[in-house]
Specification:
Strand content: under 5%
Radius of gyration: 43 Å
Largest sheet: 3 strands, antiparallel
Order of helices and strands: HHHHHHHEHEE
Distance between the termini: 98 Å
Number of strands: 3
Length: 232
């Protein structure tokens, strides 16, 4: 009595096992012999009262059909025109074998939890310090250009202009920055003063930066620029 210890995942898996066991070329399957062995396995499954999947019976019917077609006498002309009855079965077996080999290759790879154990160590609680990017002069000039563009909307023809002092404007800027809070750079400008007022305010901010009285801050590159007074 022959006992099958191999576990098959389906009819194609069983067929591939029978072919490889006898070193048969998959492109030239002896359908009669393979069908006989396949049916013997199916009958064995029935005799031990194991539940037999319907797909095994479908494959048995397919093998019987191929066997009968190959046993029928055919003329030479029909034989050259008609496709080999085994062609579809061979194609399915080759495709199944490729996927089976790929699955076995993947299964041999090291697997976390089976072959590898990833150590875990809780890190001490740490407070991340966010590094703020430096504010370059080009970005400062771009912000000033945007304020100038808005100031042009309030440009009007006047015969006399009120004199604007850079030193007085520096004091006004410091007054706005009281308390150490961040103030948007563009909020220091008054568009209604026109281009002259924007330029004076910009010069006042540059003087304050030069004298280390204020600092410029950005949360991230190309983000809006903010100004705050330096701590004493």
């Amino acid at each position: 009595m022959e006992i099958f210890l191999e576990a098959f995942e389906g009819p194609l898996d069983l067929l591939l096992y029978l072919i490889r066991k006898q070193n048969i070329d998959i492109l030239d399957i002896p359908v009669a012999a393979i069908t006989h062995q396949y049916m013997a396995y199916v009958e064995l499954m029935k005799s031990v009262r194991l539940e037999l999947a319907a797909e095994y019976l479908v494959m048995a019917a397919m093998l019987a059909e191929i066997k009968s077609r190959m046993l029928l006498p055919r003329s030479n002309e029909i034989e050259t025109e008609e496709e080999d009855p085994r062609a579809e079965l061979i194609r399915r077996l080759q495709e199944y074998e490729r996927f089976k080999q790929a699955a076995e290759g993947i299964d041999e790879l090291p697997r976390v939890g089976r072959d590898l154990t990833v150590p875990r160590l809780d890190a001490p609680q740490a407070r991340a310090r966010k590094l703020l990017p430096d504010v370059c002069l080009e970005e400062l000039l771009l912000s000033m250009a945007e304020v100038l563009r808005r100031a042009d909307l309030f440009e009007s023809h006047q015969i006399t202009r009120e004199a604007l002092s850079t030193r007085e404007r520096m004091s006004e800027v410091l007054e706005k920055l009281k308390g150490g809070a961040f103030v948007p750079f563009v909020a220091l400008f008054t568009a209604e003063e026109g281009r002259l007022g924007v330029v004076v305010t910009f010069m006042a901010v540059l003087e304050l930066i030069k004298e280390s009285l204020v600092e410029l801050v950005q949360n991230e590159p190309f983000a809006p620029i903010h100004v705050r007074a330096r701590a004493e």
